[in-house]
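Troubleshooting log. The previous run stalled partway through. Resubmitting the same two chains, unchanged.
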Amino acid sequence: QKEVEQNSGPLSVPEGAIASLNCTYSDRGSQSFFWYRQYSGKSPELIMFIYSNGDKEDGRFTAQLNKASQYVSLLIRDSQPSDSATYLCAVKERGTSYGKLTFGQGTILTVHP
Amino acid sequence: DGGITQSPKYLFRKEGQNVTLSCEQNLNHDAMYWYRQDPGQGLRLIYYSQIVNDFQKGDIAEGYSVSREKKESFPLTVTSAQKNPTAFYLCASSSQHSNQPQHFGDGTRLSIL
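Second attempt completed without errors. Output:
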């Protein structure tokens, strides 16, 4: 069973701090990696995706991918209370068709004023 | 606006009853997916479809059925064989390109009466 594991939460950070969310995956051939944000009672929304090793920045968000170590992380700089949500890591594994993804269990982030 | 529409938002099922959840998309996406989310859990794949008139079982297909008669529509039936149907059901779609993300509808919350 291929797995996607996220760091256990909940994670609590003060406003203005950097929040670091981590995700490891078991399939070394995984190709694409996605971070979704899910507010309580709502559906997931895509915030970042990354395909190549290294960092990818988009505003306050940075995704980091290390395929050799099989982990992907999401950094949120200058965290705001509005960033409080569950963050889901999703992985497209080798050999899967179209956009079929495997999701982690999610990490709850709370940003307190 | 392009998007994915799920209906109803809330649904109640009586003992022994089948219920159908609707999912329609106007994004011209080839692939569509159904997920189940239980409280505090990640997303588990029920069924997915890459093309009209074809679909595959996901990880937890027992007690569910789907059809894909039109590209835009992928309804999910929760049958009476599904003994624990209370959950948040999410429909998603993606394009045929393998690295494209999935986009989600707003979800249907199903409860037992």
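Takeaways: Chain B touches chain A through 26 residues (CB under 8 Å). The longest strand of chain B covers residues 43-51.
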